[in-house]
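Pasting as-is:
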Amino acid sequence: MATNQDLDPVALRRAFGVFPTGVVALVGAVDGVPVGLAASSFTTVSIDPPLVSVSVAHTSKTWPDLRRARHLGVTVLADHHGDLCRQLSGPVAERFDGIDLTVDDDGAVTLVEGLVRFSCSLYREVEAGDHVIVLLKVESVDQAGPAGDGNPLVFHRSGFGRLERSA
């Protein structure tokens, strides 16, 4: 049986990639400027209290700034947002070029075109290996309009895909 020391990081990443995940934009206003990133580690955690989570690498240069935002917006990306997701993972100065954003009353920044938009506050951070698990308390949800009827962007085997629904 292999031990942790015997696991090849490349093989492990490939194995983890077998499990498909949704993709979200995590955005906040810091000193009046949008700061954000794309995350494929989003998951629901709890209904009471309403909690969601994302995992952020310790090497992230964005998270130390983003965590200073009073409220964070989480936008579930649609299956046609592959290029937008790459943009949110690219150079900081260009992450929001041409992207329509909205700011709610609490200051959470979300993408206008998302399937679902959550306004969240930082609940807790949990150290977890080379990542930090960020627990967010959901303060409000916006699923109004036709955008909520689309399909989510899926990250699978290091690429983007779509869900295929059966009739």
